[in-house]
Amino acid sequence: MIPALLVLLAAFPLQQPRVFVARLSPVPITVAMQSVVAGRGAAKATLTGNKLTVEGTFDGLRSPATVARIHLAPRGMRGPSVLELTASKGTSGTISGSVELTPRQVEALDKGSLYIQLHSEKAPEGNLWGWLFPQETTR
Q1: Which of 8, 30, 50, 138 has the fewest Cβ atoms within 10 Å of its own Cβ atom?
Q2: Domains by residue range for the chain, with CATH
């Protein structure tokens, strides 16, 4: 029984978690927004199977954060929100959440087409944005 189990486990190796990172920066949508968007942040996302766990921090906002979401779009483009995260309700704080991705969303993550967007009271269209990219490994 044990040798058969070992053969089965060898045939289906456990999927290793993959790590993605994002640098959150202000991106004014209009010239008028330049006076209300500010700050910086960083996030780390770990994909295990189809579960994505996000942890991050931000600071320097000009008004309290309201929501954080993951959006789907090609790099540099705006896209619809597809997943909800939790954000501290201050001008600095944390972003976190765990979400189950669809196969299409996993593919988008692999292509660099998922980004985190943090909204604030004075910038309800988005204050900080950052695309998720695979973490560089050092050897």
Answers
A1: 138
A2: 23-131 (2.60.40)
